[in-house]
Amino acid sequence: MTLDLVIVGCGGHGREIAQLVAAVNEAAGRLTWRLLGFVDDDPAERNRKRAEATAPYLGTLGALGQLPPQTHVTLGVGDPRIRRAVAARIDALGLPAASLVHPDATVGADLVSAEGLVVFAGGRITTNVIAGRHLHVNQNATLAHDCVVGDHVSLHPLAAVSGDCHLGTAALIGAGAVVLQGLRIGAGATVGAGACVVRDVSAGRVVKGVPAR
Ligand SMILES: CC(C)(COP(=O)(O)OP(=O)(O)OC[C@H]1O[C@@H](n2cnc3c(N)ncnc32)[C@H](O)[C@@H]1OP(=O)(O)O)[C@@H](O)C(=O)NCCC(=O)NCCS
To answer: How many CB atoms neighbour CB 213 within 10 A?
Structure first.
């Protein structure tokens, strides 16, 4: 069955998801997802042009209201807090969210994930992970055993979250950051790129460096 799909966001993250969709279709050997296009409330001209090289720009998010109710969406927005706000608008429209896993990613068979999961090439989710809605695991990022992850969390490229961690809603783990095992990262917290987190991080805090402070 072919499902229609719209990507919210013409920026780099949205266009990387378009590439992911193409890879999923290619690996399946059939058109699993038909990419109808992109929506974006205020795309930069250059991003709009770049997106249109792949699929049409359909207009602002308001255009989603004109689509058949079975049309899936994926949130091509890298910032977890913005993704959370966009998700609220999508939810109001009642459109289902696609889950997209790159063929070169690996995801444990026992993963329990809410809708909207996006795992890019080289992303790894191992065993006994419970994930909320719209979790994005970017290129070569890893989420190890027994983690519990809230809604709208982002692992940026090469982030490594060790086993038994709790990541709160809309937490952001920066590129190349390491979170040691068993730690809690609070809701809305940001772990800077390249950080090594050795203690719990409270909600809304920004930490960076090695060890992260
Ligand atoms: C940590 C972070 C959230 C801080 O953002 P910010 O508050 O806007 O920080 P600024 O850019 O104003 O920099 C403030 C200071 O922190 C330093 N800094 C910024 N990011 C840092 C990081 N990741 N590690 C160590 N120091 C960092 C800056 O050099 C600056 O130092 P200075 O005051 O001595 O000049 C951000 O830099 C970051 O790392 N975000 C993750 C981004 C990411 O993963 N991007 C990949 C996208 S795919």
So the answer is: 11
Q: Could you tell me the two tokens for 205?
A: 């805090």
Find the Cα–Cα–Cα–Cα dihedral 201, 206, 208, 210, rounded to 10°. -20
Q: Tell me the CATH number at 194.
A: 2.160.10.10
Atom number in ligand 1 closest to CA 172: 41
Q: Which atom of ligand 1 is nearest to the CA of 176?
A: 44
**96 in ligand 1 pocket by Cβ < 6 Å?**
no
Q: Is residue 66 exposed (0-12), middle (13-18) or buried (19+ Cβ within 10 Å)?
A: exposed
Structure tokens at 3: 């499902």
How many C-beta neighbours within 10 Å does residue 43 have? 20
> Containing domain of residue 202, as a range?
100-213
209 CB less than 6 Å from ligand 1? yes
pTM of this prediction?
0.97
- Among all chains, which residue has been given the structure tokens 């890879």? 23
In the chain, the number of structural domains is 2
122/54 same-domain check: no
Count the neighbouring beta carbons within 10 Å of the beta carbon of residue 200: 14
Per-residue model confidence (pLDDT) at position 124 = 98
Residues 155 and 74 in one domain: no
Q: What would the pLDDT profile of 52-97 be if each residue is shown by its tens digit? A: 999 999 999 999 999 999 999 999 999 999 999 999 999 999 999 9
Tell me, what's the pLDDT at 149?
98
